[in-house]
Automatic annotation (TrEMBL):
InterPro entries: Cro/C1-type_HTH, Lambda_DNA-bd_dom_sf. GO terms for molecular function: DNA binding. The lineage of its organism: Bacteria, Bacillati, Bacillota, Clostridia, Lachnospirales. Gene3D superfamilies: lambda repressor-like DNA-binding domains (1.10.260.40). This is Helix-turn-helix transcriptional regulator. Coiled coil: none annotated. Residues 8-62 form the HTH cro/C1-type domain. The keyword DNA-binding applies.
């Protein structure tokens, strides 16, 4: 299981952000990002939410929480004939998961 810092680093690299770029988006210093990634400190809950929005991920992904008992998610929506790629549909599912997890 990865730590929060390891996950932040992994998602940052996947998004092709430098520590400085992520810091700027979050209104933090590069040193703060570095401290998180090394595990010296952890972001607060509000910052975790911002990070999830930036990387388009759920808090479960940042915390490495997995629920094997989770049932498949079914979403029905009408988009007036719009077509979505598989990647876009996955992004919609991730956002729905993020919204659901904010209640917890």
């Amino acid at each position: 299981m990865n730590t929060i810092g390891e996950n932040i680093k992994r998602f940052r690299i996947q998004a092709k952000f430098t520590q400085e770029e992520l810091a700027t988006r979050l209104g933090k210093s590069k040193n703060v990002i570095s401290n998180w990634e090394r595990g010296d400190n952890k972001p607060d809950a509000d910052t975790i939410e911002e990070i999830c929005l930036i990387f388009n991920i759920s808090p479960n992904q940042i915390y490495s929480w997995e629920d094997a008992a989770e049932k498949p998610l079914t979403i029905a929506a009408h988009f007036e004939g719009d077509k979505f790629t598989e990647d876009e549909l996955e992004e919609i599912k991730q956002f729905a998961e993020f919204v659901k997890n904010r209640r917890k």
